[in-house]
From TrEMBL:
Top-level taxon of origin: Bacteria
Record organism: Streptomyces yokosukanensis
Domain FAD-binding intervals: 6-330
Name of this chain's protein: Flavin-dependent monooxygenase
Cofactor(s), names only, from the UniProt record: FAD
GO biological process, one term: response to antibiotic
PANTHER family found in the cross-reference section: FAD DEPENDENT OXIDOREDUCTASE DOMAIN-CONTAINING PROTEIN, MONOOXYGENASE ASQM-RELATED
Domain notes from UniProt: Consists of an N-terminal FAD-binding domain with a Rossman fold and a C-terminal substrate-binding domain.
Its job: An FAD-requiring monooxygenase active on some tetracycline antibiotic derivatives, which leads to their inactivation. Hydroxylates carbon 11a of tetracycline and some analogs.
């Protein structure tokens, strides 16, 4: 089909990578995103790009040099700390190997890099998909909350955890993992919070014990993003009668949960510059597969939402986007391209999701400190 109407729902790393590679090969694609603009929402923390997934996708997209100019190789440092503040494990990447490891980049910087690589007006902001209507022969009419609609020969669901496109293929819905993060952070950490900046190091610091933990991540601009994690009920705050908008009450509740932990670690809770955001963690059932349907497919979290303890979410999404784009370049028939893409996507996403489920279960378990130390020692 000449110039198929390819519509990508979701302007995350996976969808943007797909659009970029398609455009490199002269195939037009439109991206629709519910955000009103590229700057309206905080894009989250830092990402480590793995050689055979995220880095591979960036090279395929012709963006490796631009990526590495923005990346932070020093962000690969991984540190494990005991609940009393002792450093149990500290892996600092050798300077000579920085480009060959998993250099970090802020999620917002990565998204901007991908957005800037696309032709003007590729992304249509302010388009929240409400539903898709099958028109026959693999075509769909997409209806948006702003009252507009568009027809597509291929709909790519890159619309994340609560994907509307996924409903065309699967009845699966994300399930609560049993773990909630409360996100907070420190601004200008090296100057304003030097003790906590030193404890965090140059990359990621984790302190885990008995179903509780801290994850502190270096971001650019001197910011440290902190996740206070706990294995708890999904509605823990309601059961506690806690108003999540009451900063003082949230702080006091979290400090009580971490009674007996190092004063330095507790300062990650009490000395926040950003307040607190409740983030329960969800994952799709494993395995998540679906029967082929003409004119629609999924990538990224829409296809294989998993816990962040895989370290693979954005990496796999970008690899998905690259693989789908190349399948469309190689095959003139959309249906054949989808078949080829999904034959690769589904097996690898199942393996990654199984690893992610094991990762979060070991990180938030009664003996999480010992399990994590053994894992780090083995893999470094």
């Amino acid at each position: 089909m000449p110039n198929p109407r390819i519509t990508i729902i979701g302007a995350g790393p996976g969808g943007l990578t797909c659009a970029r590679i398609l455009q490199q090969h002269g195939i037009p694609a439109a991206v629709y995103d519910l955000d009103a603009s590229r700057t309206v929402r905080n894009q989250g923390g830092t990402l480590d790009m793995h050689p055979d997934t995220g880095q591979h996708a960036l090279r395929e997209a012709g963006l490796w040099d631009a990526f590495f100019a923005r990346a932070r190789p020093e962000g690969q440092q991984m540190r494990l700390v005991s609940r009393d503040g002792r450093v149990l494990f500290d892996a600092i990447p050798p300077e000579a190997d920085a480009a060959e490891g998993n250099p970090e980049i802020d999620r917002a910087q990565l998204r901007d890099l991908l957005l800037d690589s696309l032709k003007p007006d590729t992304v249509r902001w302010g388009h929240k998909l409400t539903h898709a209507e099958a028109l026959g022969n693999g075509t769909h009419r997409l209806h948006f909350a702003n009252g507009t609609s568009t027809d597509a020969d291929l709909v790519v669901g890159a619309d994340g955890a609560w994907s509307k496109v996924r409903r065309l293929l699967s009845d699966a819905t994300p399930r609560y993992t049993g773990v909630t993060f409360v996100e907070t952070g420190l601004d200008d950490a090296d100057t304003g919070h030097p003790r906590l900046a030193e404890l965090t190091g140059g990359g990621t610091m984790m302190a885990l014990d008995n179903n509780l933990g801290f994850v502190a991540q270096r971001n650019s601009g001197g910011h440290i993003r902190v996740y206070v994690g706990m294995r708890t009920d999904e509605d823990w705050h309601r059961h506690a009668g806690l108003d999540l908008t009451d900063t003082t009450a949230v702080r006091e509740t979290l400090l009580k949960k971490f009674t007996g932990w190092s004063p330095d670690l507790l300062d990650f809770i009490s000395r926040t510059d950003t307040g607190y955001t409740n983030r329960p963690l969800y994952a799709l059932p494993v395995p998540h597969t679906w029967a082929h349907a003409p004119g629609v497919t999924l990538l990224g979290d829409a296809a294989h939402l998993m816990s962040p303890f895989s370290g693979m979410g954005a990496n796999l999404a970008m690899l998905d986007g690259a693989d789908l784009a190349h399948a469309l370049v190689k095959s003139p028939a959309i249906d054949d391209a989808i078949h080829a893409y999904e034959a690769v996507l589904q097996p690898r996403s199942v393996a990654a999701a199984e690893g992610a489920a094991e990762g979060i279960d070991s990180a938030f378990s009664p003996d999480s400190a010992a399990q994590t130390l053994a894992h780090m020692t083995q893999h470094h």
